[in-house]
# Entry
Amino acid sequence: MSQLARRLGLFDATMIVMGGIIGSGIFINPYIVARQLRTPALILSAWAMGGIIALTGGFIWAELAARRPLLGGQYAYLREAFHPSVAFIYGWALLVVIQTGGMAAVAVTFARYFLEVTHLEVADGMVAILVLAFLTVINCLGVRAGSMAQNVLMTLKIAAIAGIVVCGIVFTGHPHPLAAEVLPPLRSWDLLRAAGAALTPIAFSYGGWQTSSFMSAELRDPRRDLTRGLLIGVLGVVILYLAMNFVYIRVLGADGLAATTTPASTAMQAAVGSRGANLTAIIIAISTLGFLSQGMLTAPRVYFAMAEDGLFFRSVAFVSKRTQAPVVAIALQGALAIIIALSGRYEQILSYVTSSDFIFFGLTASTLFVFRRRALKDEKLNKNVGYLVPGHPWTTGLFIAACALIVIGTVYSHPQESLVGWMILASGIPVYLYWRHLGRRGKT
# Structure
């Protein structure tokens, strides 16, 4: 059977990391943060804190990539550290809800902004289906074609964000001061609650770097390129996000940012006039298309790994001899994302998996403790690692604690949705047992 091709380098890895993080969140979520924290200093501090958490996650995933440069990345870390069932449930949730539901939602977001710019008389659902189908085909042409599309879109996305920052700095006639009036006294509990409510959307905006690990089997040197790509990519996003929030506050002020639900569009209109809305729509369309491209490129490698482990349909492990791409896994994801987009239930589905996603963040980070402990018993496991998380175990523990707090906060705020999400995770247990039984029967 044909194997996946190792054709990607450091630049590809960096663009994949950044593309997995930057979607539409940075253009919308800042108003939620501003409504909770109310002053420029607190708003920027919260985004900086989120950036530190994201960088800590990047450090952890970088060491995991160096220790276990395996097919499926995060899926493989969970399998090797804990049990194949844990990895399968993660892959199952990724396939049926997290990745496909997220892609369906982003595809419809892209469609709405695309239609706002083009004024075409077409249903947004049709545009969403067409773009999902197009990206599915592109990625079936090979990892190089999929990565090239991702690199182009990510470069355009960086340029577009830089354009917003420049416009906000250069063309704002009467900028708001960053040193605002003194905040009325808050009880420590109120401030803590507000900070927690603000950090949740920030954490989601920064999330996504982990999907780059899925591509380990197609990087020419995963130990070097994925490790460096994670650190460069996450740091680059932190800089872009802080710059965007600086501009939002400079143009709109903390109160103006809290008053709008479309901060990017409002800031651009304030800076450059009525053209700002159209420019923002173009930028968000590019950003969401790039995010879709990254998802279509990365996640199918997890389903491919599941099939390689004998825990899914064997056909999903099929690799095209001509393109050396896992075409069945890619087509499966595209088809499910299209079905969810057609159902119109993507937003509801996404609300179910919010807490589940961060459970797997915390679990995956905890695998580092397992791998470090094993390495103490067998020095060969430290060979060629070349990178260690600074401040471990404290930094790793703090990242896990941050994930736990986000899960607790989400369950407290949305108990019903969280319960449904956990039921979706639990539905993977009988599916895993079924595939394991089939695998054992096949060996006898």
About this structure: The chain has a mean pLDDT of 87. The chain has one domain: 10-443. The radius of gyration is 22 Å. The first helix runs from residue 10 to 21.
